[in-house]
Amino acid sequence: MKSLQSYTSQIELELEKLALPHSPSNLYDPLRYFLKIGGKRMRPILTLMGAKAFGIQPEEVLPAALSIEIFHNFTLIHDDIMDQAPLRRGKETVHTKWNENIAILSGDVLFVKAYQALALQDSKHLSELLTIFNQTAIEVCEGQQMDMDFEERSNVTIPEYLEMIRLKTSVLLGCALKFSGILAGTTKENCDYIYDFGQYIGIAFQIQDDILDLYADPDKFGKQVGGDIISNKKTLLLLKAFELADKNQTSKLEKLLTEEEELKKIGQAKILFNEIGAKKACQDLMQTYYEKALTAIKKVSVEDSQKTELLALASYLMEREV
Ligand code: IPE
Ligand code: IPE
Ligand code: MG
Ligand code: MG
Ligand code: MG
C-alpha cells in the first residue's frame, strides 16, 4: 500500500505547480503562504484512493483531486475570518497576517483556481463533475451560514446541528469520493455508496473537530484551543451538555455562555462538560457515524482488497490530534 506521506507529497507537488503570479503581491502572497503551511490534504487523498479502489490510476483524477483541496483552502481562509480565528495549521491566519479585505479577495481567487484545476479534467466527465461540485459549493455556504446563525440561537437541536455539519463539512468529502467514481465510470450505485461513505466519515470528522477544539493539545493542534466556546458555537459538546445536564448544571451552562473572560470560560467549559459526560457522549456519536461509514463502503461493489486504503485512512482520521 502506498504510504499516506507519498499521497500527501503528490498533492503538495501539484499545489506547487500552480505557479501563482507575483503581482499584485497582496493578492498572491497570502495564497502562496497559505498553501505552503501544511494541512492533512485528506480530501484530495480520498479522490486518489477512490480512483484506485475503482480500478483507475490516481494520476487520472489529479486535476479533480486538486480542485477539491484548493476549494477547501478557500473555505478555510474565509472561515477563519468568520470565526475570527488567529491560528491555522500552527501559523497566523491570512486575515491576521494581512487583513480581512486581503483574506476575502485572495480567498475569492482561490475559489476560481479550484474551477481552473477542475477544468483540466477530461471533458467527457466534466459536466457531471461540475454539477456535483457546484451543488457541494452551495451546500458548504449553506452550512457555514447555519453555523453562524446558530451562534445567536439558544434552542439549536442535535438534528439541526447534524444537518449543519453535513453541509459545512461532510458533503465535500462525499464529493471528493464521488469524483473518483464518476471518473472511473463506475455504476451510479457505487457512486452513491462511496458518497455516503464520505459523508458519514465527514460527520464523524466534524464531531472529532468539535471535541478537539476544546480538548486538543495546544502544541499539536495548530488552531486556537477553545475558539468554539469563546464564540458560543453550538458544537456537539455544548448541545450534548445541555441535553444531559440536570437543573443545576443547566443554569451553570447558561451562565457559562455569558462569561466574558476567555481563559476562565474555556477552563469552566472543560470542567462542566466533563462533569456532565458530554465528551463521552460526543465520542459515542462519532463512533456511530464511523460505523455508518463502514456500512456504506461495504455496499460498494468492488473487491474488499480494493478498499483497504480508504478504510485505513478513515480509521487514521478518527485517531487524529490535529
Ligand atoms: C478543517 O479541515 C476544517 C474542518 C472541516 C474541520 P482539516 O482538519 O482537514 O484542515 P487541514 O486542511 O488538514 O488543515
Ligand atoms: C469549518 O468548520 C468548515 C469549513 C471550513 C467549511 P470549523 O470552523 O469548525 O473548522 P475549523 O475548526 O476552523 O478548522
Ligand atoms: Mg467555522
Ligand atoms: Mg473555523
Ligand atoms: Mg472546528
Structural write-up:
By secondary structure, the chain is mainly α. The protein has a two-stranded antiparallel sheet with strand order 1-2. α4 packs parallel to α7, α7 runs antiparallel to α8 and α8 packs across α9. The protein is globular. It binds 3-methylbut-3-enyl trihydrogen diphosphate (2 copies) and magnesium ion (3 copies). One magnesium ion binds next to α4.
General form: globular
Percent of sequence in beta strands: under 5%
**Which series of helices and strands comes N to C?**
HHHHEEHHHHHHHHHHHH
- Trace the largest sheet across and list its strands: 1-2
Ends distance: 23 Å
Weakly predicted, low-confidence segments: none
Summed up, the helix count is: 16
Helix content: over 70%
Overall pLDDT metric = 97
Radius of gyration over alpha carbons?
Answer: 20 Å
Q: Using DSSP, what is the number of strands?
A: 2
Which small-molecule ligands are present, each listed once? 3-methylbut-3-enyl trihydrogen diphosphate, magnesium ion
